[in-house]
């Protein structure tokens, strides 16, 4: 699903530098990325999603060479192939849960909001246990419910890859396990791989593989 | 469409903020337009009335007071001019004099004592009832009828006032015999009576109860002065014959005299006769007085425009700041949108949709307001011009 080869990236001269010689994420695989803060975990997610562009190396996602795409191509690729789940849920307070799930369709012409999408959103919400709360705004939902809405939003576009950045970081211990299981369950049902950044070592046994990121950080040249 | 949908959703969710921004923006747009419309309409109405009144004769003093009292029935009270001045103009054969007595009011509307010539001169027609024919009759303007809910067959009572007459003024009940067609001029807000009726209100003319019999007169015992003599407050068919005026009509007062000259030459001759700065009367051209008033108003308006402009700039800056702060507050949303695949242009379109939507709604409200003002400008101008009458 994801193949990273010889990728180098740095934030300006003298700043943080990242070197990933090789990394592979298989189809439907669930991999956790751990490592100290500032080691570049989120940067790798952004490189894979095409939000950042590496200085050198190649990133291949679902057969698409992301590094070869231009800005427009990367946006389309992101909208259609990647599902994001964020630590802070990143829901919009002014939209209902339903409209938050539709949000990716509202902001990019690469996706079309039709009846099929609406049915899929409802089915996802039912599966996540929030089917009866879709008309509520985020402020009227619990943290766990908000993250469920975020998971539905990540999956509604039927992506092949879910990038999760500390998705359970703001949840209580019980909710963490439930939400992660739900994410895996739904990703499995959609046939999507999951690459998740986490600091929570208690959750690591639930992943198929763990990637320690400390090994990839380079010291900035003097 | 998606950008608009999101913009509407944002504005609806933050309705209080949106409402304040919309109202402020609408006000900024509406006020200058409404002011301009009303001022232009006022100018047209003022100038039209002034131009439709060729000459105005009155006591020497403020020309503006004279004009406002005689043309707009304002609350100005120029010194009265004696009726002999009316006769003088008649005798000259140079024009038609129309006395206008505007000293009294009823229910907040000016009572205008005049002659039948006034109705022909202003081309006023009766929409309901009939014109003036008997002492005490009143014909009311359309706005008076509307405001008081009265029409032909009802009655009005003059407000008790002391004016020229030191003996006091007796309220007079006047039957309304007609309602005038609306003209969107100060005539709509006036109560017209014959000038003799105005004199009755003033106490110059009055009636007596028939306490003095023919026998008493024959016996030389008639009561010439009697505390029992009753001042009538209502003129009826039974007592109308008893009404009479004391003194010479030449000395009776009127507020002003509209003079309609036969032609330009007559006007010039007439004007020449009142040039004496020491004379008790003056003959003025209302159009000139009004024009100078309008010029003064527009000089003030220019100042107001500058003030409005400064306020508008400040208010738009405040709106801009509010919108900018809103953009800053939404930085996280923008970052999320970019991560999910939105292009920067889409984000900008989303944010500008909100601003444009706000301004369009505000513009719509301002436009509706301006249309209402524009539609009613003539009527409201008429009301404004007679305000305080």
What topology emerges from the helices and strands here?
The complex is a heterodimer of chains A (222) and B (389).
Chain A: E1 2-10, E2 17-25, E3 30-34, H1 41-48, E4 56-61, E5 64-65, H2 71-81, E6 82-86, H3 97-107, H4 115-127, H5 143-155, E7 161-165, H6 173-190, E8 193-197, E9 209-212, E10 217-218
Parallel strand pairs in A: 3-8, 3-9, 6-7, 7-8
Antiparallel strand pairs in A: 1-2, 1-4, 2-10, 4-5
Helix pairs in contact in A: 3-5, 5-6
Chain B: H1 2-13, H2 15-51, E1 55-59, H3 63-71, E2 81-82, H4 84-92, E3 95-106, E4 109-114, H5 116-121, E5 126-129, E6 138-140, H6 142-148, E7 155-157, E8 173-180, E9 190-194, H7 195-202, E10 205-206, H8 214-218, E11 244-245, E12 253-254, E13 256-261, H9 264-273, E14 281-284, H10 286-329, H11 331-339, H12 344-385
Parallel strand pairs in B: 4-9, 6-8
Antiparallel strand pairs in B: 1-13, 1-14, 2-12, 3-4, 3-13, 5-8, 6-9, 7-8, 10-11
Helix pairs in contact in B: 1-12, 2-10, 2-12, 3-10
How much helical structure, as a percent, in the residues of chain B?
40-55%
Number of extended strands of chain A: 10
- The run of helices and strands of chain A is EEEHEEHEHHHEHEEE
Main-sheet strand order of chain A equals 5-4-1-2-10
Structural class of chain B: alpha+beta
Largest sheet of chain B: 10 strands, mixed
Task: Briefly characterize the structure.
Helices cover 33% and strands 23% of the residues of chain A.
Provide a descriptive summary of the structure in words.
The complex is a heterodimer of chains A (222) and B (389). By secondary structure, chain A is an alpha/beta fold. In chain A, 33% of the residues lie in helices and 23% in strands. Chain A has one domain: 3-Layer(aba) Sandwich (Rossmann fold), CATH 3.40.50.300. Chain A contains 6 helices and 10 strands. Chain B is 51% helix and 16% strand. Chain B is built from 12 helices and 14 strands. In chain B, strands 1, 3, 4, 5, 6, 7, 8, 9, 13 and 14 form a 10-stranded mixed β-sheet that branches. Chain B has a two-stranded antiparallel ribbon with strand order 2-12. In chain B, helix 1 crosses helix 12, helix 2 runs antiparallel to helix 10 and helix 2 runs parallel beside helix 12. At the A-B interface, helix 2, strand 6 and helix 3 of A face helix 1, helix 11 and helix 12 of B.
